[in-house]
Amino acid sequence: MLRKQAELESAQCRLQLQVLTDECTKLHSRIQDLQKLVIQHRDQIAQQPGSSQASFLNCLPSSQGQHKYHFQNTFTVSQTGNCRIMAYCDAMSCLVISQPSPQASFLPGFGVKMLSTANMKSSQYIPMHGKQIRGLAFSSRSKGLLLSASLDNTIKLTSLETNTVVQTYNTRRPVWSCCWCHDENNYIYAGLANGSILVYDLRNTSCHMQELVPQKARCPLVSLSYIPRAASAVFPYGGVLAGTLENASFWELKVGFSHWPHVLPLEPGGYVDFQMESRTRHCLVTYRPDKNHNTLRSVLLEMSYKLDDAGEPICSCHPVQTFFGGPTCKLLTKSAIFQSPENDGSILVCTGDEASNSALLWDAGSGSLLQDLQTDQPVLDICPFEVNHNSYLATLTEKTVHFYKWE
Question: Residue 349 falls within a domain, yes or no?
Fold first, then answer.
């Protein structure tokens, strides 16, 4: 009995040692990143005589290239409509588009249509959910593993290699958004209709491990984006950017996988969508028209922070650029913010415009309109991707997806 007890204590100590060793390794790596950041920041300030830190950090290069997006082709996804969102899997060169079942009488529900971007041909429909899908996100670590969020009170993991659902989590409330944690491989986030975020550990198949309760209004969480930690002078912290219909918060990921909320100082209400560009730490917030603004607005914001007296960060954001659309916005559409295919460091913003049935492409640095990509219906989602060193842009309407090539 004593031997068994000693063996058990020994096993527990070994496990504890392994956990602490892993944590120590992560912290050591983090310290090295921050040391590099301090040196880099000091050098940058030294090279900018007479300029403030703020003006240096706010500088976004403008796109100088002569290329633009050229229409390639249109693909009909669903004859009955009701398509909603897209996601691109780089490892499999595959675009997935949410749609209702094409054989609703035999197999009701919703799933995704797989579309090979190598030959622009459809492969098949994968059934997944009982109600409309509101969120899609691919894992950056596991090939073809798709996370989906639905109004049927579930999030699911689907393998595109086997075309089957491999895991289902019951959230007990409609799910409006989802994303992966890019700093810790085994965690996913689900944004609920009441504004809460459920955090799941893929190694625990029974229930969620944390619930992040909304700091303000309890309304649907329309978008989740994960900001990975980075040795960035602008914003080095990792965490979840959560946008509801009324407000937005940044949940900073702390040591021990705890989350600390920072309510972002944005104009209240009227939100449609939140998007993130992780390299430059900029986010894009889209507002519907209201009594003070008669057009759709997409505001480019730069994430920022300052340290309090205890040395803890107070995370915030400030506007850099505003892009204006048309006078109507009845749908919850999604925009896109991404690095220019020119690879010149510039950032592009693409927003749907219901009034003109088009996607507007903007240069984030100068704020100028680069292109007006016309479609036949309102653009619901926008997805940039690369195939064989060529850059493309896909725009989704209720029934079709339109492809444009950068050249």
Answer: yes
pLDDT band for 59, please (50, 70, 90 cuts): low
Q: Which of 32-36, 54-58, 280-284 has the highest mean pLDDT?
A: 280-284
DSSP code at position 104: T
What b/e string do you get for 41-57 counting C-beta neighbours within 10 Å, with b at 16 or more?
A: beeeeeeeeeeeeeeeb
Interatomic CA distance for residues 376 and 400, integer angstroms: 9
Domain housing 390: 68-83+335-406
In a domain, residue 395? The reply is: yes
Task: Compute the chain's Rg from CA coordinates.
Answer: 22
pLDDT in tens, 319-348: 999 999 999 888 989 999 999 999 888 899
SS3 of residue 130 by DSSP: coil
Amino acid letter, 318: H
Note the pLDDT of residue 48.
53
Is 157 domain-assigned?
no
* pLDDT at residue number 24: 78
CATH number at residue 381: 2.40.10
The yes-or-no verdict on residue 213 having pLDDT over 60 is yes
Q: Is 146 part of a structural domain of the chain?
A: no
Residue 146 has pLDDT above 50, yes or no: yes
Tell me the β-bridge partners of 103.
Answer: none
**DSSP output for 322-382:** EEE--S---S----EEEE-TT-SS-EEEEEEEGGGTEEEEEETTT--EEEEEE-SS---EE
Encoding tokens for residue 149?
Answer: 């969020």
| Number of domains composing the chain | 1
